[in-house]
Amino acid sequence: MNPRHALIIAGEASGDRLGAELVCALSGAGDWRFWGAGGACLAAAGVELAFDLTAHAVVGLWEVVKHYPELRARFQRLLRLARDRQPDLVILVDYPGFNLRFAAALKQAVRSRSGPFLNWRPRIAYFVSPQLWAWHGSRVRQIARDVDLMLCIFPFEPAWYAARAPDLAVQFVGHPLVDRYGSASKAPGASGARPAPAGAGARTRPDPSAGHAVERVLMLPGSREREIDRHLPVLLPAAARLSARASIELEMVLPNERLAEMARARTPPGLRIRILTGGLESALARADIAIASSGTVTMECAFFGVPAVVIYRTSASTYWLGKRFIRVPYLAMPNLLAGERVYPELIQRAATPEAIAREAGALLDDTSRRQAIRQRLAGVIEALGPPGACQRAAQAIQSLFPGQAA
Question: Which of 10, 108, 115, 229 is least crowded, fewest Cβ atoms below 10 Å from its Cβ?
């Protein structure tokens, strides 16, 4: 039997990695050929890329407006490719501002070409669910119309969809972090022991600072250029304040060398901070605390049992719109899953150098508080399900093609 063809779209670094993991799982479950748009991870997984969409990731209303012509050109190019090549499957990975519109446009194109001799009926799978429950619940109607399968990584999401779109196929597959880091070898701590993440084996990780005087602070300003622009002006002065402590080590991890060079160029002379490209899991394994941009990385902090101060700054217009539409009490996902403020959150004007340094210092000074946070995070990670998230996602996608041998 001829191989099936799948178009996959991932617009950000986190989605690129997740999409690559799903591609590997699907490749093991059947005969597939993949093409689309993404980044280095999808390319390494064997996906034929039309272009690198992750290099153009934008955040905030103004960034979308500023880059609209190029985003639209890439959108239209992918849509033409889909119409010309007619894939059996379309996998949309996160990136809802782009991907939800793509799903609607593709289904409209399919409907407009229906007829007795035009039998192209691509299945659309969305991985992972957009956070509609946080900001835009009305979009569930569009998803129910245009998406064939919604794959969720948080346990409460299927019930949310069932109450609003009961005919939509939704499956909780678990969180890929459990596979990604659960059996990985961790960097040794100062004592030589390898601390286990909160979600793997030992459910409460030892405090890396136990038995040594060094305080290790990890700074995670974000994965997009605009986040770096917004966060470094408050993170670097906060780092300068923290550096006055007697024995402290400061690290900053960025996902690629371009962003790392941006950070190095803006770091004032005399500020002792190591700026690294990649190596997030090793950095988390040796960190006492983190200062992290709100986003996927807060779940990685939680998985490794690292107490964190969560920050986020964006444009005034984006923040104003967010205040109008966001319907959840916290931005950090570990806080939402815990149902309480486990991680301090400093958002917009509250994210000042003084406040960041104060919250970080308070965590460093309170060993019992850090341990209590680790214990609470262990329960959060436990709820994410067992290993095998991408394998379960692949099986759910295969079920969209009943009666067809792989």
Answer: 115
Contact 82, 68 (CB under 8 A): no
Asked whether residue 405 is domain-assigned, the answer is no
d(CA 186, CA 40): 24
- Residues sharing a CB contact under 8 Å with residue 354, sequence separation 6 or more, in sequence order: 238, 241
Same domain membership, residue 346 and residue 303: yes
Same domain, 230 and 321: yes
What are the strands, taking DSSP E only, across 85-143? 89-93, 123-127
In whole angstroms, give the CA distance from residue 316 to residue 349.
10
- Residue 343 in 3-state DSSP? coil
* 160 and 190 assigned to the same domain: no
Same domain? 244 vs 287: yes
Do 207 and 82 sit in the same domain of this protein? no
With a CB cutoff of 8 Å and minimum separation 6, the contacts of 81 are 7, 35, 50
**Phi, psi values for residue 311, rounded to 5°:** -125, 160
- What DSSP designation does 48 have? E
Question: 152 pLDDT exceeds 90?
Answer: yes
Amino acid in the structure at residue 96: P
- Dig out the tokens for 79 from the structure: 């849509």
Which residue type does 94 have?
Answer: D
Is there a contact between 214 and 248 (Cβ–Cβ < 8 Å)?
Answer: yes
State the average pLDDT over residues 268-285: 96
Residue 358: its H or E element = helix 353-365
How many domains, in total, are found in the chain? 2
Q: Are residues 144 and 244 in the same domain?
A: no
Question: What DSSP state is assigned to residue 195?
Answer: P
When pLDDT is cut at 50, 70 and 90, the band that residue 193 belongs to is: very low
Whole-angstrom distance, CA of residue 323 vs CA of residue 339: 20
What is the distance between the alpha carbons of residues 85 and 382, in angstroms, rounded to a whole number? 42
Buried b (16+ CB within 10 A) or exposed e, 180-197: bbbeeebeebeeeeebbb
Amino acid in the structure at residue 155: P
pLDDT tens column, 349-376: 999 999 999 999 999 999 999 999 999 9
Strands (E), 209-299: 215-220, 248-254, 274-277, 289-293
The pLDDT > 90 percentage for the chain reads 73
